[in-house]
Batch of 2 targets.
Target 1
Amino acid sequence: MKIGIFDSGIGGLTVLHRALSYLPNEDFLFYADEAHVPYGTKTKEEILEYTTGAVEFLTKAGCRAVVLACNTATSVAVTKLREEFDIPIIGIEPAVKPAIAHANELSAEGGRGGRVLVIATPMTAKEKKLHDLVERVDSHHLVDILATPKLVEFAQKGEFNSPAVENYLKEVFQDTVLSDYSALVLGCTHFNLFKDTLSGLFGTQCQLLDGSEGCARNLAAIVEKEGFAKGECGNVTYFSSGEEVKDETRLAFYRQILERLSEMEKY
Ligand code: DGL
């Protein structure tokens, strides 16, 4: 069967990378809305319009399930999309719950800090969805939230540990005591590409967590439950804002990102 994986840009490759390991024989249509990236600084109306357009495109192209591999699009649009479309729409959310469990475990053992920092786009950081989630699971008020929007722009340029990235991170964390945190939640799929740089800053005792594993697992469970016919091909076709990507340089860039994501697994 065909499965759509959608993001504003290359961040969605994080989920594709995981989904391929659960469902190696399905056909994936990866859709990056690169004409409109970044989403995190857009209005809710714009994000809803762009995301609806992409899901429409993917359903017309034959997808029988669509993953919103974008925390920002999930925050704003998942409920409306589930009402509008007759196929499973799988969202992604910041891994706050396992981060709190980890922080609590460490403090029980007398370990460091015990706070949790969620980094996300400005939209995810202010949206009700994240605040509701934190309220449900953060009974000891351990969670802080910080928007780090420029990381999306750096990622789109394939820039992950340049001096400009390092300077930006210094600036954005200038009022944050990094050693307070035993867990850093990557609340935007683009941020997984910076795990080496972030781990360097926060130290190896700080666990880096993201929602892509849970999201891919949900997708695999839905494919199993819905009893979709097993695929046989395992092809991935890439689209950038509705146009199939055929340019070899761009395809090579996507492949490099997937390779980088494999490297980031050790963090
Ligand atoms: N990668 C997306 C997310 O997970 C969106 C980033 C953006 O376009 O601002 O939030």
Note: The chain has two domains: 2-92+212-264, 96-210.
Target 2
Amino acid sequence: MSRIEDLLERMTLAEKLGQLTMTASGYAVTGPVIAGDSTESIRDGTIGNLLNMIGAGPVHEMQRIAVEQSRLGIPLLIGLDIIHGHRTLFPIPLGETAVFDPATWERTAREAAREAAADGLAMTFAPMLDVSRDLRWGRTAEGPGEDTLIGVLMAHAKVRGFQGDDPSAPDALAACAKHFCAYGPVMGGREYAAVDISERTLREVHLPPFEAAVKAGVETIMPAFTDLNGIPMTMHIPLLRDYLRGDLGWDGVLVSDYNAIGELIKHGVAADLVEAATLSLKAGVDIDMMAGAYRHGLPIALERGLVTIDEIDTCVRRVLRLKERLGLFDDPYRRGRKAEKADAIRQRRELARDVGARSITMLRNQNGALPLDPPPRRLCVLGPLADAAAEMRGPWFAASEPDDPVSVLAGLRDGFPGTGIVHATGAAIDDTDETGIGDAVALCDDADAVILCLGERANMSGEAASRAYPELPGRQEALARAAIARARARGTPVIAILFSGRPLVIPWLADNADAILAAWFPGSQAGHAVADVLAGRVSPGGRTPISWPRALGQVPVFYGQRPSGRPMDPKDPYTSRYLDVANDPLYPFGHGLGYGRFTYANLRLSTDTLRECDVVQIGVDVSNEGEREAEETVFLFTRDKVACVTRPLLELRGFAKIRLDAGRTGTVEMSLAGSELRFLDAGLRGVFEPGDVEVLVGPCADRAQLLGASLRQI
Ligand code: GLC
């Protein structure tokens, strides 16, 4: 008999429900309910899983109680939100997405897994795969931006990175694809609000990243808190049981979000914990995180005949199998037995610095304000995010300490050793006090350049952080206006650096700063990454993974919208437009400048007809007509102008990078399979439809910047 079947035979109901329970240990607070000491429950086997522990010592201590003191010795599964690093933080996911490099996305997850496993952890609650087109929603910071293909590529990269080739390895973590699904389009961009979208949008936009995670072998999935079209995800039988386990054949572990099963009562679909537990178990949710619904509700549900012991055993079996795959039975102390070598930690920091720099997205650079090369004699650094190390971590900072990161000010002092640097905050992140602005901007007078470090506090994005006015908080714009006015009087360039978990609505700054960098939250090596870009040691490589609106009223604004029967025509008022703002975003998806200047020419296709089984090769010549070496990200889109249903104005099909010295020309080759052009017809059936399709390449989702060629699907 297998170990698992043997255990199942010997387990009491309380021990079985213990394996279906995950409780927070209190080392980090990530939800509204705080757990106390779980030691006794671990000893009596009524808690089988923990979250929010940090450190190999404490983890092994809890593991020892479970393995050596409980009746059956079943090891604990212990997880943490390792979203973009553990102790060494990489840029927040939205910022890392801006790098547009799946190999990098995988590598940072691999490094995070190594660091977290060395701390004894066996599971992360990542990757977060929620496609978001609404910057009001704070969790846009945690995800892959607005595009589904990017979500798919991110899913694959992160699952491979966290889990590695062998989930039982001492440096592997079980990944958790979350939040399944369609959490991004919460009503009004308001956190935890209901979601109401079409079946088409669900299938075309929000499901593919999770399908990719399943194909990549993800061990666990977390349903979203949200109600999708009237059914809370935590009890969503059609999507959890029928789609994930049925259609996709996925047999991994479903772990509820924090107290989400208990919250079915507030959703108004369960009268009490017994009913809530029943609904989730019927949907196949295996682990109850923090609601105590399975522990306290299922025994009664069982007595009432609402659930069966077989249904419970099925979930227990999946949890025990996961622990077995992770090697926890064979060696529960495998993770955290060996401390990492100093060299590994140093290399990880170097990677964080490199990825941090490459995530920085240069939105504007007038008159060559950047790079600051040769280094200026004197720099004036203003703003509340200049000397704010803790904020550089972003909203999900895991095991990183507040003073771990390198602040911008520290990075500039290190990166510009021969430059005099003066600094003043000038205004706080989000209060109304303007009294510091006058003295602060006086420091501009003797400077060769002014750096404004502006933006959000880290906790103004992430979970429970929707903003109805996603602008520069507080009096930061007043600081910027005063500084730019003062500096302009002397012809001194002003570079604004934005630190945020979302695009900020910055119409005035966009017209008046000489240069603007979106730094997102760059993580542990923030200051060095910023200095490397400002000094020109690294050409900013970031491309915005989400359309940057001119005005909040445009939201949701994204490049893949459908055409409308009255597409905007400036000469015709009766077309799709606003009276008070243009339709297009301030910066389109994929926008980002570098220190080169790229032009495109000679787009060519290997064929002008394409069957579903064919693959077309696409080539384009790219020239760097700038003065400095730089890397260009070339995007490949298609546009299907006539089809049986309306089709998006652009669809991303891929991207490639090319690094060119000044004055050099290179060729970018990409391929497109006919099968990738399938779409859902009026009946939501996948079809490959004969007809013309445009193939377009260029630097971003701005039609005016794209080269196009026609292809006939046959
Ligand atoms: C939080 C989040 C989820 C996280 C979990 C554990 O509420 O919604 O993303 O993984 O609880 O911290």
Note: The CA atoms of residues 63 and 271 lie 36 Å apart.
